[in-house]
Amino acid sequence: MDMKEAEQHVGYLLFEVSRLFRRRYEERSKSCGLTLQQARVIGHLSHHPDGLSQATLAQAIDSDPMTISGILDRLEKRALVKRVQDPADSRAKLVTITPEGRELFIHARSISRELFDQILGNLEDGHREILMESLKSIRNQLIDMSPENKESQK
User: Is the CATH number of domain 3-122 1.10.10.10?
Assistant: First the structure.
């Protein structure tokens, strides 16, 4: 399959858009010192003020426990997150975002929004909404196809 043929496949285009977005985001986010994965972690934690277990957080950002552990170690060294005792289980820890982490996430989110505005700014009226609805539909279909959802539907 040549490049022209590849560009006719939605899977290829989705992969390329995602890859290029990550690259552009990483270039722009150097000013705040966060990788995209780190920004995703603190972003997810910002929506869960009581904290999340490391395993739940890893699953939420589609990462493995060892990778998330390294990310959390680096974020904790910068005082952007902290690990606290889980009040429901004395053997477990919860990860919470610190005020410094929340402030940095706001900056990282503005970088992401500016990038998306720039990327999507050339779309004709209404096309942005159509794109968003189409992507949501694809995402929901993929979620419905997951083994976890198929098991719960039995």
Answer: yes
Any bridge partners for residue 52, and if so which? 95
Q: Measured between alpha carbons, how far is 96 from 153 in angstroms, rounded to an integer?
A: 33
pTM of the model: 0.78
Backbone phi, then psi, for 89, in 5-degree steps?
A: -150, 105
Is residue 95 classed as helix, strand or coil in its secondary structure? Answer: strand
Per-residue pLDDT for the chain (154 aa), expressed as one digit of tens each?
566 676 778 888 899 999 999 899 989 988 888 988 999 999 999 999 899 999 899 999 989 989 999 999 999 999 999 999 888 888 888 999 999 999 999 999 999 999 999 998 888 889 989 999 999 999 899 888 887 766 666 5
Q: Residue 94: is it exposed, middle or buried by C-beta count within 10 angstroms (0-12/13-18/19+)?
A: buried
- Pair of tokens at residue 22: 């990550």
